[in-house]
Design brief:
Blueprint (H helix, E strand, L loop, with lengths): L7 E6 L5 H11 L10 E5 L6 H4 L1 E10 L2 E5 L6 E5 L4 E10 L1 H11 L5 E6 L6 H5 L18 E2 L2 H13 L11 E2 L5 E8 L10 H4 L3 E4 L9 H7 L10 H15 L21 H16 L8 H4 L7 E4 L2 E3 L4 H5 L17 H13 L8 H16 L5 H9 L10 H4 L2 H12 L2 H5 L1
Parallel strand pairs: 1-10, 1-11, 2-7, 7-10
Antiparallel strand pairs: 3-6, 4-5, 8-9, 12-13
């Protein structure tokens, strides 16, 4: 378990830079929290999100019941039940506990365990309204505890008590009417660098958080990051990081003298699911290495170390087809043309089959994805006020005639290919 740590920060950067991914890495690496797990509480702010959603509120719940009448009889029917024919409806009010009080209850229940409350898109909600008087708790002392407390109303106090009881915490774990954020409760928010459709954050709210900028290229490191960088892009012979580097340089050059961090495109703006080949790549590479010493080997005693279910054909030799079950357990099919009577040839055949599987094309970013996602963002957000830089790119790629007037005219397959050609032209050619 990690030491008790108090973080209160907001990660911000252009769309697709990996903010949410970074939050979960912080949870695991800095706070020792299992992801996903019960000590990671997540919520997302939006324009309809309010104070009660964040802490607690009463919600009505309808229920139906039938009133019963019991009476004692005599003879063969000593007891009988009469039910009223008409059902009655009732409205009950139950306390809905919000993410902040859930996180607080977890933190109070076990002060030695770090708890993280994640607020995605924190600037898409009205923070002044959502936090209300809880805003006062964001001032923390050196130990990570709130410097000042807030008086809890009876509703919130009852909600916190109920949640602590549900967690099996002792009654003493619930604070008195005054509430504080404990040192083992961290809060992390995420937000895009800037967006015209979100709420304004005042300086008093901002100064209570540590702000960490995320570059469009994301946080380097790890196989997943390298895979994303090297995704092939259809129709241009470039990988994703090369295309993005050219595009973001072009965007920056088109907005000289302005803050254009939010106009740039993040590495994770487009995601491509891993193929079966990619998921199996590591175990198959290991299997291939283990098969090399078995080349030209027919002895069952050699093969059974790698394939435990392999059978002995006779004279101590491998029963060739008996290796199939263990081989297919790696997620790859059995190769065609295996000679069942020549086990000494099997290792070469399996290695050849693995090589062929690993050389199959990697999934990449298709031209349709470029058209429907990237080109739409460029048209609707980045160059919404002045689309002349977009048209200049298309002309670099070979477009002639009039400029497109609508998005439909702009985002054609031909124009998508021209956009890529324009971006990837050598710098001296483009400047000319």
């Amino acid at each position: 378990m990690a030491a008790v740590t108090c973080l209160q920060k907001i990660l911000f950067g252009p769309p697709g830079c990996g903010k949410s991914f970074r939050v979960r890495k912080i949870a695991e690496e800095e706070l020792g929290i299992t992801v996903p797990g019960p000590h990671l509480i997540e919520t997302t702010f939006h324009p309809e999100y309010g104070y009660g959603d964040f802490l607690a509120k009463l919600l009505p719940q309808s229920s139906k019941y039938q009133q019963k009448y019991l009476f004692s009889g005599t003879g063969a029917f000593p007891d009988a039940t009469i039910r009223e024919e008409v059902e009655r409806s009732s409205i009950e009010y139950n306390i809905h506990i919000g993410p902040l009080l859930k996180a607080l209850a977890l933190a109070y229940a076990d002060p030695s365990q770090n708890v993280l409350l994640v607020i995605d898109e924190i600037n898409r909600g009205n923070c002044a309204q959502i936090f209300g008087d809880i805003f006062q708790l964001l001032d923390r002392n050196d130990s990570g505890r709130s410097e000042y407390g807030v008086e809890l109303c009876q509703l919130f106090h009852s909600a916190l008590q109920n949640e602590l009881k549900r967690l099996g915490a002792p009654a003493s774990a619930c604070p008195a009417q005054k509430l504080y954020l404990p040192p083992n409760l961290s809060l992390i928010g995420t937000m895009n660098t800037s967006d015209e459709s979100v709420y304004y954050m005042d300086s008093a709210f901002k100064r209570r958080w540590d702000f960490a900028f995320m570059p469009w290229s994301g946080q380097p490191g790890g196989d997943l990051h390298e895979r994303q960088r090297s995704l092939p892009v259809e129709g241009c012979g470039a990988d994703w990081i090369e295309l993005l580097t050219r595009l973001n340089d072009y965007i920056a050059g088109s907005f000289r003298g302005r803050n254009i961090d939010d106009k740039q495109i993040g590495l994770w703006f487009v995601k491509v699911p891993a193929s079966a080949r990619e998921k199996l790549e590591r175990p198959l590479q290991t299997l291939k290495t283990q098969l090399v010493p078995l080349v030209d080997k027919a002895s069952h005693s050699d093969w059974v170390k790698l394939f435990p279910n392999a059978g002995n054909y006779g004279f101590g030799n491998l029963q060739t087809l008996s290796a199939r079950t263990d081989f297919e357990a790696f997620g790859i099919g059995w190769p065609d043309g295996v000679n069942p009577y020549q086990p000494e040839l099997l290792a070469d055949k399996l290695i050849e089959h693995i090589d062929g599987f690993l050389k199959s094309p990697r999934p990449g970013i298709t031209l349709d994805t470029i058209r429907n996602k990237l080109m739409f963002f460029l048209w609707d957000n980045v160059f919404a006020r002045d689309r002349s830089p977009l048209f200049a790119l298309l002309r670099l790629g070979g477009m002639t005639g009039e400029d497109p007037r609508t998005f439909g005219e702009f985002a054609t397959p031909v124009h998508a290919a021209m956009l890529l050609v324009g971006l990837l032209k050598p710098a001296e050619t483009a400047s000319a």
